[in-house]
Amino acid sequence: MALSNLLSPSTIFVSLLVAYSSYSIWSMAQLFIPPVCQANQKCLKPILTDNPDYQFVAFYSLKLSPRSSSDVSFVFKENPFDYKETWEKNININIPQKVRSNGTMFLHMFLTSPKTNSEKWSSVVNDPMTIYESVSLTQYHIPEAKSFNLLGSSEGEDDSKKLPSSDDRPVTHFFSQVVFNVLTDSFPIPTDGVPYEIGRNLRLSPSGKYLPVMRVDFMSLRINNLSLGPFRRSPGVDAKFGLHRIKTLDEVKGIFSDSNLYLLGITFFVSTLHMVFDFLAFKNDINFWRGLKSMGGISPTTVVWRTFAQLVIFLFLLEEETSLLVLVPAGIGALIEIWKVTKAFHIKFEGWRLKITHVLTKEESNTKELDSEGLRYLSYIMYPLCLGGAIYSLLYTPHKSWYSWLINSLVNGIYAFGFLFMMPQLFINYKLKSVAHLPWRAFMLLYPVDKSRFNEYGQSGIEEEKKKKKKKE
């Protein structure tokens, strides 16, 4: 008995999720722990302990790997340059015609010796103390559709800004800013334990010491000094999300760059718990409805409403291109609600036709009458408010399309007045003076249950468990 409980799907799922979360948190913590160089190991020493002087130099080109000075154009230099301090600079670059015609453009950045001829490409590249990094200033993707007033543009506004995008072809977009970081932590690195995130950018000076490591973190020319953890974290994000949508990648990068590490860890932990409770709620809800024999005491209107609301919310999240972490549970919830409607109304498919095979019992007929009465009272408040909100949104709020307006109006009504649709079920509970007909196993994830308490039908949780044990024996 105990072994079967340990091997239940719920226990296995929760155990795997806890193990994965623990591993992820430990992996994130490892990024901030520098490699340790033992006494018997061969190690690379940092040149930063000598406090070398540097200047910053930038070029742009239309090629990723320019081979000569004719392929690049000088942009800017800063001499001397303090790489240990935060530095920001706004720079204007003339965009060539080729780039405007859906071409590509690259920015090449160097930290090099102060005595190097900074405006000469070959001198900068061949300096043994040079640190180099490059980034594409352009990126191809399909323009996002702009919102506009569906009933016509307002006076004094530019109509070109109101039109939706109908072109599905990708066009060149420019990064609004470029951020790159210099690793300023000084620590010896064992030659047989160089982290991958550092090793791919590591260069050695003529004296055998490793030079400061520089790497682009995307997006006005801004340079920040950086410690080991955030520096190692950046390429991991780029690698894992490099093939994802531009919007998703920007959101993920914002999470890692704008959030405090401890807050990020707490958020990850709470999100994991939320996923566990979602899974358990889905499981218990399905078990309740699978074993349901009668709809007595359960509001059919509330069941239909929950299905409609869940579908609208899912379509809204799909329209807003929400993260899969939110979209997938919403989709699963919508499918479960649709299945519950088929159970509640005993709907069966005969070919392409839907057929309701259930004959109402006396208890279900009484419930239906109470449900209709509760819905009539609700309609006096609900419908005028939702209709007024939709009309206001149509008149004063820009939208991408009529479909977008419809989905937004529906979801606003659900979020604003959805709690009112609990009224038919509450009305039934009040009239029957009972809540024993509700899926309490799903609710127990939110509220503790006294199993020794008897309900209105003389049942208790302890007695139910004893009956189950006798059946299994």
Strand numbers in spatial order across the main sheet: 3-2-5-6
Count of runs of 4 or more consecutive helical residues: 15
Q: Overall pLDDT, averaged?
A: 72
Distance between the termini: 10 Å
The biggest sheet amounts to: 4 strands, antiparallel
Shape: elongated
Task: Write down how many β-strands occur, each being a DSSP E stretch of 2 or more residues.
Answer: 14
Helix/strand-derived category reads alpha+beta
Low-confidence stretches: 154-166, 219-248
- SSE order in H/E notation? HHEEEEHEHEEEEEHEEHHHHHEEHHHHH
Beta content comes to: 5-15%
Proportion of residues in helical segments: 40-55%
- How large is the radius of gyration? 31 Å
InterPro entries: CLPTM1
Keywords: Membrane, Transmembrane, Transmembrane helix
Protein name: Lipid scramblase CLPTM1L
Family: Belongs to the CLPTM1 family.
Topology:
Elements (H helix, E strand, L loop, with lengths): L1 H5 L2 H22 L12 E2 L9 E8 L10 E10 L5 E3 L7 H4 L5 E7 L8 H6 L4 E6 L1 E4 L29 E4 L3 E6 L5 E2 L5 H4 L14 E3 L4 E6 L1 H13 L5 H13 L2 H30 L9 H20 L4 H21 L2 E4 L2 E4 L5 H35 L5 H16 L5 H10 L7 H4 L17 H12 L1
Parallel strand pairs: 9-12
Antiparallel strand pairs: 1-10, 2-3, 2-5, 4-12, 5-6, 7-8, 9-11, 13-14
Helix pairs in contact: 2-8, 6-7, 8-10, 9-10, 9-12, 11-12, 11-13
Main location: membrane
Membrane topology: Multi-pass membrane protein
InterPro entries: CLPTM1 (IPR008429)
List keywords for this structure.
473 residues; alpha+beta; four-stranded mixed beta sheet; 15 helices; elongated
